[in-house]
Design brief:
Length: 166
């Protein structure tokens, strides 16, 4: 067992990438000599740009034993060349939340200062009419008329009770 431990650590070994999570930046290597799987983090991969490993990509690596097991300290392609990497790239989370542009009124991925239409006339954001603004929209009053009448009647009855109770 002592010889196997020496073969696992400190020397250049050949292997293949078992799997690599491109979004998280880590995966595992399977040594060609049949030893224990080796953890690999993207920071030890030798390649330019976005560092990753393709599935079943042949690599040479050095590793060391840590408290968690074997961990690669250097990973490169065959004969020390750069790794090829995965063809998959993680999605970049760019402003995916859609907002209403106050200039064009659309739910889009831009705000009024970045709107490509240029300055637009002011209009209601609810019905898009240029005759009035949102606060004065006739469609707004139709929707909320039932809720406002019940809340106003309950507030007036509670205020009259409060006045008579004093």
């Amino acid at each position: 067992m002592g010889q196997g431990h020496e073969a696992e650590c400190g020397c250049v070994r050949l292997g293949k990438c078992k799997w690599f999570n491109v979004a998280k930046g880590w995966g595992f290597l399977t040594p060609n000599d049949g030893g224990q799987e080796v953890f690999v983090h993207q920071s030890v991969i030798q390649m330019s740009g976005f560092r990753s490993l393709g599935e079943q990509e042949e690599v040479e690596f050095e590793c060391q034993r840590t408290a968690r097991g074997l961990e690669a300290t250097r990973v490169s392609g065959k004969q020390g060349d750069d790794c090829h990497g995965s063809t998959y790239r993680p999605r970049i989370n760019r402003r995916t939340r859609r907002m209403r542009c106050y200039n064009c009124g659309e739910f889009a991925n831009h705000i009024a200062s970045e709107c490509g239409l240029g300055p637009q006339p002011k209009r209601c954001h609810r019905c898009r009419s240029e005759d009035h603004l949102h606060a004065d929209c006739p469609h707004r009053n139709v929707v909320t008329s039932n809720a406002s009448s019940s809340s106003s009647s309950s507030s007036s009855s509670s205020s009259s009770l409060g006045a008579s109770g004093i």
